[in-house]
Amino acid sequence: MPLGRSGTVAALGTAQTLSWASTYYLPAILAAPMARELGVSMPTVFAAFSVALVVSALFGPRSGAAIDRWGGRPVLMTTNVVFALGLAALASAQGPVGLFAAWIVIGIGMGGGLYEAAFATLVRLYGRDSRNSITGITLIAGFASTVGWPLSTWLEAAFGWREACIAWAGLHLVLGLPLNALLPRPPAQRVPSANEPGPAAGTPAQQPSWRAAVVLSFVFAATWFISTAMAAHLPRLLQAAGATLATAVVVGALIGPSQVGARLLEFGLLRKVHPLLSARIASALHPLGVLALALFGAPAAAVFGVLHGAGNGILTIAKGTLPLVVFGPQGYGHRQGWLMLPARVAQALAPWLFGLALDRWGAGALALSAAVGTLAFLALFMLQTTWSTDVPSPQTARP
């Protein structure tokens, strides 16, 4: 029997948790033992991971177009197999060549198996009525690091990093693949007839789409740069700002709950607010956190962590909802792949670039992230909030 909407969100969210935990969150735990055994430096391991992110950016548009055409079910099932192959190759790597080759395979899977693909899957199923479903999967997959880091740590300590990779590969085949196989098949796409009336005035089709695409691409790249830079350097950054190591660890632990709490707020109160308005609010939170830290020093570290985490949590949802409300559901997956391509590249470069800034300026590097966040906030005012959302979804379209 086909899954209902709640079951679809639960299955997709659980599969996304697995995909994020076994790829994006893997190097944080396994990079050190990998480097020791393979005889390479830690930066080399993270360079291979950065290559995977660039590869994922290149494959994103193609994967999105495939979801537009066939739905998410076959694409996501394929990525489970690709993830399993890449993780198995990583487990068998004997040197830098094998390391980079394995991460390239994993990067191919990331291009069609992470949030952008999940969002496109939901839009293909539910059209413009996908906002709450998008929020739902981010609520579930928001615990990917909470699940992934302890499990990877335990597997590495008990069996070794190679066996940990094999275990994650097996989970893709015995858990992720069946979960994605349960996803409903999408309704047939409708091609409007030539004598059908065009879109009403004010709908996305009549807006300057090139400008909107440039703005969204920049906003997504800027916010992912900040998110990845903070994920890589937050403890060191807070210590440079005067916080103790213990405080930095506590603040880091606050970010996950802050993200989930903000997503619950989006699911509840902010669901009645235009997605563009909630994105503007969210993009301002990191710069406000930096301002609090600059004014009050280390005692405001927790405030900074909560504001940064909350903004990041809502912006993850905005990456799915803003393209939908601006452009509508038609061709969503392919467009989403192109919109997120600069963000993936920025994500790959963020740890290195922000690390250089941190080495040079110490806590002053926060001026860089605050400036980038402020530019994203201002860029969102180049988009309108008056677009009509009266775009037919696949279910309401006439046969």
UniProtKB/TrEMBL annotation:
Subcellular location per the Swiss-Prot or TrEMBL entry: Cell membrane
Keywords carried by this UniProt record: Cell membrane, Membrane, Transmembrane, Transmembrane helix, Transport
Segments crossing the lipid bilayer: 45-63, 75-94, 100-122, 134-154, 166-183, 212-231, 237-256, 364-383
InterPro entries (alphabetical): MFS, MFS_dom, MFS_trans_sf, MFS_Transporters
Top-rank taxon, per record: Bacteria
Major facilitator superfamily (MFS) profile domain: residues covered: 8-388
One Pfam family this sequence matches: MFS_1
Membrane topology term: Multi-pass membrane protein
PROSITE patterns assigned: MFS
UniProt protein name: MFS transporter
Source organism of the structure: Pseudaquabacterium terrae
